[in-house]
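Holo prediction. Input below; ligand is magnesium ion.
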Amino acid sequence: MLLNIRNLHVSIEGKEIIKGLDLSVNNGEVHAIMGPNGTGKSTLAAVVAGKEGYEITEGEILYKGKDITDLSPEERACEGIFLGFQYPVEIPGVSITNFMRTAINEQREYKGLKSLTASEFLAKMEDKKKLVEIQSKLTNRSVNSGFSGGEKKKNEIFQMALLEPTMAILDETDSGLDIDALRIVANGINKLRTEENATIVITHYQRLLDYIIPDFVHVLFEGKIVKSGGKNLALELEEKGYEWIKEEVERMS
Amino acid sequence: MAKDKDKIIDKVTGDDYKYGFYTDIETETIPPGLNEDIIRLISKKKNEPEFLLEFRLKAYRHFLKLQEPKWAHLKYPPVNLQDIIYYAAPKKQKEFDSLDEVDPELLDTFNKLGISLEEQKQLSGVAVDAIVDSVSVKTTFQDTLSKHGIIFCSFSEAVQNHPDLIKKYMAKVVPYTDNYYAALNSAVFTDGSFCYIPKGVRCPIELSTYFRINAAKTGQFERTLIIADEGSYVSYLEGCTAPQRDENQLHAAIVEIIVMNDAEVKYSTVQNWYPGNKKGKGGIYNFVTKRALCKGKNSKVSWTQVETGSAVTWKYPACVLKGDNSVGEFYSVAVTNNYQQADTGTKMIHIGKNTKSTIISKGISAGKSNNSYRGLVKVAKKAENSRNYSQCDSLLLGDKCGAHTFPHINTNNKSSIVEHEATTSKISEEQLFYCNQRGISTESAIGLIVNGYAKEVLNKLPMEFAVEAQKLLQITLEGSVG
Ligand SMILES: Nc1ncnc2c1ncn2[C@@H]1O[C@H](COP(=O)(O)OP(=O)(O)OP(=O)(O)O)[C@@H](O)[C@H]1O
Ligand SMILES: [Mg+2]
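Structure of the complex:
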């Protein structure tokens, strides 16, 4: 099992946001997580990536069989965890090229590999640019600075392509994309799929799942996964909304 | 959450000075103290002509009437001028034909700094006038330079070999009456650099001086004079780092630049003197008067500085734009960390018509440091159609440091345009997490962001200097996050 989250409880500033969440992801799988606004989807992603300020009060996060809760965010990244941000942050003055070269080389150093030379890196970048049809003028610009919403999301997938993570968590990568961009990004994600890696896509729209066929769909509601199913669950949610899920949860408790 | 970030920033910025070491070179010194006899002794030891001794004594008598200025945003204990040794020279004081003859300890020191003379000589084609304490030890590339008629030597040598030029140009831009530190320097200066570029000559190599403060309790009073004659060009590099020491050391230098018609001087500095330890103990006090006179028409001067060192920095490289169409530029990155204090900026004095000036100042404060920009843009009555653009940015790392901006604008001409912009920003937790999530350590992330922020200024430096400066910015803010 690649990722195994058991009975996870997470609080922010004393307020519990994740309330006993279980999730298992195997190599080669794609999972979709859906759920109403403010139920803890981004919180879950941030906790797995190791963001500070979140207190794990109970439970564990096992990645490749090991508890990662004591690892720093950069160590987790080097171990292959990638987070596609819902709101990518701007870093003025730092070009994407420079940023990604630093990232790749720090990850290589962690793994005991030699740094890529400038030309090796540029060749790799050219290759991956094609994958998400990203323009050269974008990679020369500062990270996310003045990017449109869609450009930011494309840039996240471009970075994922360069870093080749084992466990990618994509937080609403589809929102803000136009129809063509959605297809391009989804195709990019599909091309990056292997037997070894796994992807969690967090989304509000079943539309994305027409392109990226998930093995499992989960509903996250009030800090817990309350329902899991196949691709059809997404269709059902699209049709009926979340009201019936709420009722189901209430009936159960 | 904020606390955790502070911890990281504290760690990253709480590092000790990387260049702290001390070279044991035998030095010849005179007793500490400041009086007319000492000044006469300095002048005699340096075998100076009568006019120079007269100048020193006049400066000293004027100095006695002055009070130490207190207007800067700086706090430091008073310096006892009587405790200072005003003259120290390496004992093995003679000219060298090759590096083999140079004290190996000294070469080792340069090697530690990554600026070995050998490397400089072989790889970068930079002529080096290395100053250890107050006397020049090694000057290279004289042959190439003399072919072009360029004079580049220590100030003392210039006094011996070109007294006419010294007499004609010295103290014409910064008179000894200029300020407290300038008067002090004029009285007791021991050495520095001298550079003369003849008419129409483009200096084929970057001229570079590495300064080091070395002997204990030796105040450093350097004097640099650069003259660019009509239609000439020179790029001049000044860089320095000092060994770690527990005592405050006063440094009061003067740099004068004179630029004639159609000539251009680029003056770049990377300053990395001992800033004191993490608790704010020790470090260099750096009170410098740097001024360029754009005397001729279409003349141009640019000051580029990367200031990372010293406990206290008081420094305002200025341009006096006297010639019509002359251009003055000031590009500065000033980093303060721990308990460092910097009060730095520039003065642009527009006197000629159609004169233009640009000021780009980037302050970076970390730890408990204070970083102030102080600038003056003055447009005289006759400076028609003059223009100034100023941009002063401050970047804060953590919340215990301070950034201050004191821009003064004084325009007396209606056809002139003066523009000023200022911003203050912080490195956010979100930015650091974004970098971390891609595998970049917090330390590298700060390096990336800081270098990105300072890029506009670093780009103005000559290539080999820019690389060194980039490293220096990172080192200054580094502390390896575990
Ligand atoms: N730093 C924070 N401080 C306080 N509350 C927070 C913080 N971050 C998240 N929350 C709260 O935690 C809850 C879950 O937020 P989260 O961002 O995980 O929701 P989400 O499921 O991703 O929602 P959306 O679909 O709108 O993106 C929300 O109520 C949110 O306000
Ligand atoms: Mg969210």
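The longest helix of chain A spans residues 96-110. That is the main takeaway for now.
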